[in-house]
Write a structure and sequence with these properties.
This protein is of the alpha+beta class and 149 residues long. 37% of the residues lie in helices and 16% in strands. It has helices at residues 5-10, 59-73, 108-130, 138-148; strands at 18-21, 25-29, 37-43, 82-84, 100-104. The chain binds guanosine-5'-monophosphate and zinc ion.
Length: 149
């Protein structure tokens, strides 16, 4: 596709810092990294979104395999990394040529997820503290229900 940024990078018509390529995919550094390590793994074939990958196609498997290999090469396989695919606008997709992100380091996405989990845990604890431990009318009904199952 002529107007697709990633097709242009793959065809060498737009510069990018490539770090891996084979017959099916090309990987290059993200131009606006969300983290010290932010690599995009992109199929050579122009497939707009994950939803457009035909049933049984092995390209997504291949993206996983290449991500594992690159993670080893850039030294984050053991320390850890995130591998994700944004799908459509609601899923944060901006470039409509299927691609996987390999992100490692202290990126804002990871910090945001960790903060979210911490708030959820705290919320559950608070709700547990204020919630009454039993209900005089409903408890016998629940017990009966449990017994009848
Ligand atoms: P999406 O949000 O579509 O999943 O991710 C698109 C990614 O492509 C973004 O992280 C963005 O920074 C990156 N990107 C957009 N344009 C270019 C470009 O011209 N070159 C490179 N290397 N990355 C790009
Ligand atoms: Zn494309």
């Amino acid at each position: 596709m002529t107007d697709c940024i990633f097709c242009r990078i793959i065809e060498g018509r737009l510069p990018a810092r490539k770090l891996y390529e084979d017959g099916e995919v090309v990987a290059f550094w993200d131009a606006r990294p969300a983290s010290p390590i932010h690599i995009l793994i992109v199929p050579r074939l122009h497939i707009p979104t994950l939803n457009d990958v035909p049933e049984g196609d092995h390209i997504v498997d291949h993206l996983f395999r290449v991500a594992k290999k690159i993670a080893q090469e850039v030294g984050v396989a053991q320390s850890g990394y995130r591998f994700f695919i944004n799908v459509n606008r609601g899923g944060g997709q901006v470039v409509f040529h299927l691609h996987a992100h390999l992100v490692a380091g202290n990126d804002f996405g990871t910090l945001f997820i960790k903060a979210g989990v911490a708030v959820a845990v705290l919320w559950r604890k608070l709700v547990g503290l204020v919630r009454p431990q039993g209900h005089p009318r409903l408890d016998p009904i629940c017990a009966n229900l449990m017994e009848s199952n």
